[in-house]
Amino acid sequence: MKEDDEAFTPEWLTANMSIIHAMLKRRGITESWYPEYDDKVQDIVVRILEYIPKYDPTRAKKSTFINVLITK
Question: For the chain, what is the radius of gyration of the CA atoms?
């Protein structure tokens, strides 16, 4: 998958949810260690969906943009 060849849409996000799970795992946030994991993922997805219209592919890759939103 070349993530930046495709438009950043809600459909793209749905098809690429693994990126969120991988970023959370790098932070030590996993289903087994974080009881509210599903709630955390849902909050992050809602935040990303709110910010998709502000995404500028000339300034960052999708993964970088998502990473910033996860840390907010």
Answer: 12
Count of positions (residues) in the chain: 72
The whole-model pTM stands at 0.85
Residue appearing with tokens 């909050």: 43
> Hey, what are 18's tokens?
């693994």
d(CA 50, CA 26): 24
> What are 15-61's pLDDT values in tens digits?
999 999 999 999 999 999 889 999 999 999 999 999 999 999 999 99
Dihedral of alpha carbons 13, 34, 36, 65, sign: negative
- Among residues 3, 1, 2, which one has the least CA distance to residue 66? 3
